[in-house]
Specification:
Elements: E1 7-10, H1 14-24, E2 28-31, H2 37-42, E3 50-53, E4 63-66, E5 69-73, H3 78-82, H4 94-100, H5 106-111, H6 114-120, H7 126-133, E6 137-141, E7 147-151, H8 152-155, E8 156-158, E9 161-162, E10 169-175, E11 182-187, E12 197-206, E13 209-218, E14 225-226, H9 228-231, E15 236-237, H10 240-253, H11 264-284
Length: about 280
């Protein structure tokens, strides 16, 4: 299928892009890599009357580490993160590179961008899950030059819905703290397909003892879902039994949907398996 007709605009800087968005209103969409938006347009699930192309704003493509954390520009591609030298994201951010292997297929990773994935707000998208589990925040800019920080847990509001205001665009995501003991586990019908369930885990370890954890699931609700009931279990000595109890708590705490890819019970069983797997892998790092 072909998309509905639209007017093409090319932004030359962030301020100009913000001004175009504000001027064109709800009938405009940003496009960079286009790996999420273009398929939706081809199926007429999205029909923007205006496309604002920010793909040429190369100043938004970078990985930088400083005292405030890891900064990733919105136009950085998935593949650039996947292939970055270990010193680029910095020690303790190995989870980011590991997660990129689950993002679609190689052509998608070479074109798709970090900011585009976050703005799309897909509850199974790896960047959305990473942002929540690593307690990140995004920096959003407007055409008047103002910028604001949005915590990841405040960015995602529901099904493909975010708290970005009209005229705002994501310019950067910041991960304030490293997470050396972290892992991702996913299950899809085929490698590169959307995850039926994804589990991301970060552990706070003091030797062989756990002092806390964060667990985020994708595919079980309309947005990335933390599981406090399962996190509360992960205190004390690291054992396989503890991780199994945590996995049971996670499966019991969710109310996943049923669809063509699997029933709610199937997703609970996947959650149980994947949480235990991610916990074990995170502890072994």
């Amino acid at each position: 299928m072909k998309p509905a007709s639209f007017v093409y605009h090319r932004a030359h800087d962030v301020v100009g892009a913000g001004r175009l968005l504000a001027e064109l209103g709800d009938e405009a969409k940003l496009i960079a890599g286009g790996q999420s938006l273009v398929p939706m347009m081809n199926f007429r699930l999205a029909r923007p009357r205006h496309l604002v192309d920010i793909g040429g704003l190369r100043e938004l493509s970078y990985l930088r580490v400083d005292e405030s954390g890891l900064h990733i520009g919105a136009l950085t591609t998935h593949h650039e993160v996947e292939t970055a030298a270990e010193t680029a994201p910095g020690s303790g951010f190995e989870l980011l590179r590991a997660a990129m292997g689950w993002v679609g297929h190689l052509p998608i990773r070479t074109r798709g961008t970090v900011g585009g994935s976050l703005a799309h707000g897909d509850a199974t998208a790896e960047w959305c899950l990473l942002a929540v589990v690593l307690d990140a925040y995004v920096v959003a800019a407007k055409g008047d030059g103002t910028r604001r920080k949005i915590a990841a847990h405040e960015l995602f509001l529901g099904f493909f819905s975010t708290s970005l205001e009209p005229g705002e665009l994501i310019v950067e995501i910041v991960f304030p703290r490293a997470a050396p003991h972290a892992a991702i586990a996913e299950f899809a019908l085929r490698r590169g397909d959307f995850a039926i369930v994804a589990a991301l885990v970060t552990l706070e370890l003091d030797g062989e003892r756990l002092r806390g954890a964060r667990i985020v699931l994708g595919g079980v609700s309309e947005m990335p879902q933390r599981v406090p009931a399962a996190e509360a279990v992960l205190v004390g000595e690291v054992t396989s039994e503890l991780f199994a109890t945590c996995a049971d708590a996670a499966a019991s705490a969710i109310d996943p949907p049923s669809d063509a890819n699997g029933s709610a019970d199937y997703r609970r069983e996947l959650t149980r398996t994947l949480v235990a797997q991610a916990c074990k892998e995170a502890a072994s790092r």
